[in-house]
Specification:
It is built from twelve helices and 18 strands. With about 350 residues, the chain is an alpha+beta fold. The protein has three domains: about 160 residues, ATPase, nucleotide binding domain (Nucleotidyltransferase, domain 5, 2-Layer Sandwich), CATH 3.30.420.40; about 100 residues, Nucleotidyltransferase, domain 5 (2-Layer Sandwich), CATH 3.30.420.40; about 70 residues, ATPase, substrate binding domain, subdomain 4 (Actin, Chain A, domain 4). Strand 11 and strand 12 form a beta hairpin. Helix 5 packs across helix 11 and helix 6 crosses helix 7. The two termini are about 40 Å apart.
Length: about 350
């Protein structure tokens, strides 16, 4: 066994994008090995976990009374620590890192997260068996993943629309100049579709159905889209299953409030940007990442509202974890962009 192979056998550094909707795990030298929904299914009687990730998501809204599907993260923050930890441990075991050397773990977290929440994420990663834990804000990780020149004195603006949070940040000289983090993103859009059906048709639809509607005919701007689809749900008045036909226009109406909130947040962030950097953004545009950026017409709507060039990144779902993975290659060089830990402050 050559020395480099030997080293690779032992090196097991990991980057994790612990997202509200999906958890991605990147292993140094191997790439993204896990990309699964952040969902677990538990047995009520003994709190045992019966399924994780994609398998648990399939069960969402279809479980017998004895089994409960839970999402351990809400709005980009860990809502249930024990479950989040067990889920993280399961995904890390899945990538089969070396047991001999404890891994260094980089975790991407929302920028609007409190110190208590940061500590919780760090503790969870330590319990999972990390030798060292580094935290990085999601917009910063996404910028590195997209390949923006973050350490140069030029301003770059990035909008990362995930499941739980929309992170908008202006980055220059390895730092976040200003950021806006709102807890309105993909999940909120899905929820607003569910509410819209309740109000307008007295029809109750499941989360997976709403998600499918959003991805299939959902759109942002006043798009002249004649698409429609058949939706099945339960009639709240008669209590029986019922099918209705809905149009793209109706879904647009359902999503409008969430989209408006994101547009407003982007404008607010631009208002607070120093003029020199605003000029850079005018030249280089705004980069869209995250699953939410794939919503039809969203880039067009932002382009119209801000009069700035808007670019959707190549693989928006994996930008954050790819960026966190790049940090593993040069932890020293990226020290500036990582969150300081409490221990470092004291030293």
């Amino acid at each position: 066994m050559s020395m480099s192979m030997f080293k690779n056998y032992f090196v097991s550094d990991i980057a994790i994008d612990l997202g509200t909707a999906n958890t991605l795990v990147f292993v140094k030298g191997k790439g993204i090995l896990v990309n699964e929904p952040s969902v677990v299914a538990i047995q009520k009687s003994n709190q045992e976990i019966v399924a994780y990730g994609a398998e648990a998501k399939e069960m969402l809204g279809r479980t017998p009374g004895e089994i409960l599907t839970v999402r351990p993260l809400k709005d980009g923050v860990i809502a249930d620590f024990e479950l989040a930890e067990r889920m993280m441990r399961h995904f890390i075991r899945k990538v089969k890192v070396s047991r001999l050397v404890r891994p260094r773990i980089v975790v991407a977290i929302p920028s609007g997260i409190t110190d208590v929440e940061k500590r919780a994420v760090r503790d969870s990663a330590e319990h999972v068996g990390a030798r060292e834990v580094y935290l990085i804000s999601e917009p910063m990780a996404a910028s590195i993943g997209v390949g923006l020149p973050i350490n140069e004195p030029v301003g770059s603006m990035i909008i990362d629309i995930g499941g739980g949070t929309t992170e908008i940040a202006v980055i220059a000289l390895s730092g976040i100049v200003n950021d806006t983090s709102i807890r309105i993103a993909g999940d909120e859009m899905t929820e607003s579709i569910i509410q819209y059906f309740k109000r307008k048709y007295n029809l109750l639809i499941g989360e997976n159905t709403a998600e499918m509607i959003k991805c299939t005919i959902g759109s942002a701007g006043p798009v002249v889209d004649k698409a429609s689809m058949t939706v099945k749900g339960r009639d709240l008045v008669a209590g029986v299953p019922k099918t209705i036909e809905i149009t793209a226009e109706e879904v647009q109406e359902a999503l409008s409030e969430s989209i408006d909130a994101i547009v407003e947040a982007v404008k607010l962030c631009l208002e607070q940007t120093p003029p020199e950097l605003a000029a850079d953004i005018l030249d280089r545009g705004i980069i869209l990442t995250g699953g939410g950026s794939m919503l039809k017409g969203l880039d067009e709507r932002l382009r119209r509202e801000t009069s700035l060039p808007i670019v959707i990144s190549d693989d928006p779902l994996t930008c954050v974890v790819r960026g966190a993975g790049k940090i593993l290659d040069d932890l020293e060089g990226y020290q500036k962009v990582l969150f300081k830990t409490r221990r470092e402050y004291q030293s």
